[in-house]
Amino acid sequence: ELKVEQNPLFLSMQEGKNYTIYCNYSTTSDRLYWYRQDPGKSLESLFVLLSNGAVKQEGRLMASLDTKARLSTLHITAAVHDLSATYFCATRAQYGNKLVFGAGTILRVKS
Amino acid sequence: DTGVSQNPRHKITKRGQNVTFRCDPISEHNRLYWYRQTLGQGPEFLTYFQNEAQLEKSRLLSDRFSAERPKGSFSTLEIQRTEQGDSAMYLCASSSFLGQVRSYNEQFFGPGTRLTVL
């Protein structure tokens, strides 16, 4: 059974600092998704990573995928308050259809 | 088309009552998914449709839960004889599936229906 683990589950960081959120998954998968969720809101798609070594960047966020290590990272550069949210990674079993999500990382950026 | 829509956004009901939620996917998307999210957790898969066919159901989907997508467009999720443990956010997502090789199958989520069972 596919399992997804994220760490840390809670991250409090100062504005301007850098940090990385880690996402490990337990079985072979062919893609990895990152979503953002604001309190009381639905999920907003951030990145879709489709292959080993894939790297995508949007603003202060950069995501990467290592399929051999079954690991994805979400790197935050020079954090700003607007990045405060919960971040989820999700994946699917290879050729599967349903997404399996991690428990989420609550990010709080303090000024 | 502005995205996936869900109605109602909030539902408060008493234990034992039946409730029905509706999801309207992005119009050109052929796949529709239902997930449930409880506080502090990631969404958990419930079921999905390709066009009007229900292709997979989670073991989380007890016999009190039923989902339909009669014409391959909107979908409904009904919960019969609600229990307090059913309180959660019910999320709908849709995607465009073009075959395993060609499709990103990226799922776009609606705003959710928050159910509170008293």
The Cα radius of gyration of chain A reads: 13 Å
Number of strands of chain A: 11
Strand content of chain B: over 45%
| 3D shape of chain A | globular
Order of helices and strands of chain A: EEEEEEEEEEE
Structural class of chain A comes to: mainly beta
Describe the structure.
The complex is a heterodimer of chains A (about 110) and B (about 120). With about 110 residues, chain A is an all-beta fold. Chain A starts with a strand and ends with a strand. Chain A has strands spanning about 5, 10-15, 20-25, 30-35, 45-50, 55-60, 60-65, 70-75, 85-90, 100, 105-110. In chain A, a hairpin with a 4-residue loop joins strand 7 and strand 8. Chain B has strands at about 5, 10-15, 20-25, 30-35, 45-50, 55, 65-70, 75-80, 90-95, 110, 115. Chain B is mainly beta and about 120 residues long. The relative contact order of chain B is 0.33. Chain B is built from no helices and eleven strands. Chain B is about 0% helix and about 45% strand. In chain B, strands 2, 4, 5, 6, 9, 10 and 11 form a seven-stranded mixed β-sheet that branches. A four-stranded antiparallel β-sheet of chain B has the order 1-3-8-7, with no helix packed on it. In chain B, strand 4 and strand 5 (about 45-50) form a beta hairpin. The interface of A and B includes residues 44 and 98 of A.
Pick out its properties:
heterodimer; A: 111 residues; mainly beta; six-stranded mixed sheet; five-stranded antiparallel sheet; 0% helix; B: 118 residues; seven-stranded mixed sheet
Mind sketching the topology for me?
The complex is a heterodimer of chains A (111) and B (118).
Chain A: E1 4-7, E2 10-14, E3 19-25, E4 32-37, E5 43-49, E6 55-58, E7 61-66, E8 71-76, E9 85-91, E10 100-101, E11 105-110
Parallel strand pairs in A: 2-11
Antiparallel strand pairs in A: 1-3, 3-8, 4-5, 4-9, 6-7, 7-8, 9-10, 9-11
Chain B: E1 5-7, E2 10-13, E3 19-24, E4 31-37, E5 44-50, E6 53-57, E7 65-68, E8 75-79, E9 88-95, E10 108-109, E11 113-117
Parallel strand pairs in B: 2-11
Antiparallel strand pairs in B: 1-3, 3-8, 4-5, 4-9, 5-6, 7-8, 9-10, 9-11
